[in-house]
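Q: Convert this sequence to structure tokens.
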Amino acid sequence: MSDLILHNFEISPFSEKIRLIFGFKQLNWKSVTVPIILPKPDVTALTGGYRRTPILQVGGDIYCDTSLIADVLEKRSPTRSLYPAAINGIARNLAQWADSTLFWTAIPYAFQPAAIPSIFGNISAEELQAFSADRATMRGNMPRTSMGEAKGQLCEYLMRLENMLSDDAPFLLGAQASIADFSVYQALWLVRLAPAISKVFDPHPKLLAWMDRLGAFGHHQSEALNSAEAIDIARNTKNFDIDGRNFIDSHGIALGEQVAIMPTDYALDPVMGELVIASENELALRREDVRAGTVVVHFPRVGFQMKRAK
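A:
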């Protein structure tokens, strides 16, 4: 089987989610470090414009969004499932809430001036300004959450999560870890990294113990890979993960048509190519790149939109 290549950067919460899933499933992987802000020419060569982090590369297949990446890793290693049958539906729904509502509550709280040194290290004022400008452009017209609202809502969410662990269950939905645990963890991870603001967890000892439990899975075994090598791997791949899916037509668009796919909320950078998958939970297109050659870029249906390319 082709290597699992994660394009990520150190302080990316969604990257940490996938790194911990590698640890949970004991999967070896290769790590490509990507720039934290634009330009990202090597990422663009693979994705065609999708700019969120992380992406998972398997040969010439490029998987976007951690919800889909988690599904790919589940297929690669179904033991220690992220989706235990008895809680599959609720785990996915809780994960979706954590990746959106909880994340966008925790992030404004995390990026307080007192927390910046713990999160970014010795970042210069110019670098911090460039990061802020990049993320402002990325978020576009998304509503901004004030610090007061973020703190109040985060405290309420932490209390609810503590209550989910009140029966001394080791994980949020019972005896088994699930995708919900890893999604909630990533949303809270940066807050706990910064001692100046992490006291918000102090009233919630069971939640802190749960975070320790998740963190103990670690990242398993990774090997550094540079982005040029990753592009070479994509260019030399001839077989793609496009077979075995049902065709579900919800757009009136046929396989083989030229489409544009992009998120529905932020980072609205369209990726264009030939539609090759439109299944129950996945969309994918095939595109050509001067450097990467033929690649197939995969997206989850939930959280993404597709239109005919103009």
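Residues 5-79+222-308 form a domain with the Glutaredoxin fold (CATH 3.40.30.110).
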